[in-house]
Amino acid sequence: MTFASPLVLLVFLLVPVAIARYVAGERARGRRAREFANPRLMPSLAPVRPGWRRHLPLALYALALAVLIVAAARPRTTVAVPVENATVMLLTDVSGSMQATDVHPTRLIAARQAALTFVGRVPRGVRIGVMAFNQHPRTLQPPTADHNAARTALGQLASSGVGGKRPPAAIVLLSDGKSTSGEDPRALATRAARDNIPIYTVALGTPAGTIRVPRTGGAGGYETRSVPPDPTTLTQIAGASRGQAYTAEDSEALSTVYHRLGHQLGTRKAPREITAGFVGGAVALLAIAGALSLRWFGRLP
User: Fold this and answer.
1) pLDDT by residue for the chain (301 residues), tens digit each?
2) Which of 63, 123, 153, 183 is an S-S bond match for 82, by CB 3.0 to 4.6 Å?
3) Computed over its alpha carbons, how large is the radius of gyration of the chain?
4) Which residue, 84, 151, 79, is CA-closest to 118?
5) Exposed (0-12), middle (13-18) or buried (19+): which is 140, by Cβ within 10 Å?
């Protein structure tokens, strides 16, 4: 918690003085009572003594005053608020290895479902674009605030790719394997960092992932090929672009990651003044103290 007017808190230096004066007053009251009558006769003169109840309303008043002093300092806290006019590109690997079934029902379908979760999580004002990539990227939906259009584009994810579009404000990159052609992705990530475009990578799949592909050399039939994910390269991409790296071995973990990213990229931290809450608390304390004093003593202190 921070304060817009922190110097007001110096008033708390008077609190020990007020407590000392109150204690001194209570001792003086006791001395006068002893001078007025023999202490042994006090139970007969005042059979019902308020005891601790006499101090409780005053303690509540003091606490209310302390809360009001804090309110006068204008306290502020940091909260998550929706990002205005932000742009996020969902960049999804659609290479053949995404057909592996180690992530149910397939890596690609799980990625599509998780991306839909992401779209449903971010605020309406966030512009979302959708791209697919294999050897080359392909724009399925340029950045738009129409989230239904983004959902429709996600439904088009399939193994293919050509095209390109202008750079977004952030990139969510989902992939499961190493780059086998084209420019070094880590160099591209460094370039993205210079343009203040963080890349959030998600490595999808397990080391046991496999796909069935036609045998090479015209031998006919199919063979099983291992397609483990490559979290190391994706972590390097995220680090080079000042983003973050995540891993997901099943569809549930992937949905959790995208849900978290939806909140992270769709909101920003901003200070918010909470003076009204402190004033309300002080008013409630004053009301309780007054009610107790009237009930027990028939007057306000």
Assistant:
1) 888 888 888 888 887 888 888 788 777 776 665 655 555 555 555 544 556 677 788 888 888 888 888 888 888 887 766 566 688 899 999 888 888 899 989 999 999 999 998 898 888 888 899 999 887 788 999 999 999 999 999 988 875 453 333 334 689 999 886 666 667 788 889 988 888 889 999 998 888 888 888 887 777 788 888 888 889 989 999 999 999 999 988 888 888 888 878 777 766 667 778 888 888 888 998 888 888 888 877 767 6
2) 123
3) 33
4) 151
5) buried
Q: What is the DSSP letter of 242?
A: T
pTM of the model: 0.58
| Per-domain boundaries in the chain | 2-77+289-297, 83-249
The residue written with tokens 């003593």 in the block is 297
Let me know: does 207 contact 125? Beta carbons within 8 Å. Answer: no
How are strands ordered across the β-sheet holding 137-144? 137-144, 127-133, 87-93, 170-175, 199-204, 245-248
- Tell me: domain 83-249, CATH 3.10.20.310, correct? no
Length of the chain, in residues: 301
89 beta partners = 129, 171
Backbone angles phi, psi at 242, to 5 degrees: 65, 35
How many Å apart are CA 292 and CA 284, to the nearest integer?
12
Kindly state the helix (H) or strand (E) to which residue 70 belongs, with its residue range. helix 56-72
Q: Alpha carbon of 266 to those of 4, 88, 115, 123, 147: distances in Å?
A: 27, 9, 14, 6, 13
Dihedrals phi, psi of 296, to nearest 5 degrees: -85, -35
